[in-house]
Amino acid sequence: MTRFGIAFRMTVIGFAASFLLPARAGEVIRPYLLARREGLPATATFATVILERLLDLVTVLALFAVFVLTIEPATVAANPTQFARVKLGGAFAAAVAAAGLGLFFALAGHPERVGRVALRVERVLPGALARAIARFVETFAEGLAVMRQPRRLLVSLALSLPLWLCIAAGVWATSRAFHITLPFPGSFLVMTLLVVGVAVPTPGAIGGFHAAYQFAVQTFYAAPDDRAVGAAIVLHAISFVPVTLLGIVFMAREGLTLAGAKKLAEQGTRRPDDSAPAKMSELNRSVR
Predict the structure, then answer these.
(1) What is the pLDDT of residues 205-264, one digit of tens each?
(2) Cβ–Cβ contacts within 10 Å for residue 182, how many?
(3) 288 burial via Cβ count (<10 Å: 0-12, 13-18, 19+)
(4) Full 3-state SS string of the chain
(5) Which candidate, 57, 146, 160, 53, places its Cα nearest to that of 107?
(6) Please, which residues have CB within 8 angstroms of residue 190's CB and are 6 or more apart in sequence?
(7) What is the pTM of this model?
(8) Is 242 exposed, middle or buried (0-12, 13-18, 19+ CB in 10 A)?
(9) With contact defined as beta carbons under 8 Å apart, do 201 and 24 qualify?
(10) What is the pLDDT of residues 128-158, one digit of tens each?
(11) How far is CA 60 from the centre of its chain?
(12) Cα four-point dihedral sign 140, 142, 143, 145
């Protein structure tokens, strides 16, 4: 089990790297740094990142459901067709999240069996490659250990809720500061669309974040263009700049430069099965 302080620092470094480097490099850097510091299999730590994203999606969709169930359609400026499309998209994402959780639960319950099933690809692939794939799949499944403990999974979901409520409060307060009128549950709608915008793999979510926010407040709350642009810029700065500055400080404490972080991300994407201590030592040397 990893220590909270280490996990926090590695998470902040990952967020900073995603802001400063393309293709959300921090999502690769974070599990590799955590594995290096805690002596864990890199593939297993990468599995926890995917599970975290899935739990985040479940929480965001739950808040979006609160918006759909509590908001009066007459208070939304969008026409019924637009509103129906958003609700349909939310329902589809909820189905995907539920299917993903079910798949992860199945993987976590029988990691050895999953590895044996993966070995069957040896019939069509060279033996060494098939064994590498089987080892990767089995280690990935082992990283989903929390799925075998429903109580801890529920605790993780419970801890995710206040985090996303704070994010929603920031969206609501920034919008109100620019005189964009929306009820607090309306921030759940805006936040859901921001999650879609942030998924665009640009450094710091620049562009996607702003476009998603502008679309949300202009389409559903009739915000003037100048206010929507200004609020998007300020909200983006509030959301990303502080954590990036803190991440840079933590990177310096780890002896990791931006160039080293980029190299680490490139090596991580090329070597998803990298869990051996010797290979970890090589990664350590490459970023210093």
Answers:
(1) 899 999 999 999 998 898 999 999 999 999 999 999 999 999 999 999 988 888 888 887
(2) 23
(3) exposed
(4) CCCHHHHHHHHHHHHHHHHHCCCCCHHHHHHHHHHHHHCCCHHHHHHHHHHHHHHHHHHHHHHHHHHHHHCCHHHCCCCHHHHHHHHHHHHHHHHHHHHHHHHHHHHHHCHHHHHHHHHHHHHCCCHHHHHHHHHHHHHHHHCCHHHHCHHHHHHHHHHHHHHHHHHHHHHHHHHHHCCCCCCCCHHHHHHHHHHHHHCCCCHHHCCHHHHHHHHHHHHHHCCCHHHHHHHHHHHHHHHHHHHHHHHHHHHHHCCCCHHHHHHHHHHHHHCCCCCCHHHHHHHHHHCC
(5) 146
(6) 171, 175, 182, 213, 216, 217
(7) 0.76
(8) exposed
(9) yes
(10) 666 666 666 666 666 666 666 777 778 888 8
(11) 12
(12) positive
Q: How many residues would you count in the chain?
A: 288
- The half-sphere exposure of 184 on its side-chain side, counting CA atoms within 13 A, is 6
Which residue is associated with the tokens 């430069």? 257
Which tokens go with 272? 């998803």
